[in-house]
Sequence to fold (81 residues):
Amino acid sequence: MRIGFRHSAETISRLRERGRAQFADPEKRRLHSELTSRKMAEASVHVAQLHDLRNAWLAACPKARARFLLELQAPICKDEP
Fold:
């Protein structure tokens, strides 16, 4: 069962053929694979950094968290009375 926008059978067929044609060339497939691998490696580093940040946030005392949030929001709220 499909959810969301539905394409006609003809459109799906054309999209499928276009996708196959794009990757018919082994060099294009290789470049796409390398790019995908590189992006996945970058994402895994980013996830590790977020994990470290989350651990630091959880280890901080509540007063330090509150102070951080107030300092972060200060430029936004400075015009309010």
User: Anything to note?
Assistant: The mean pLDDT is 86.
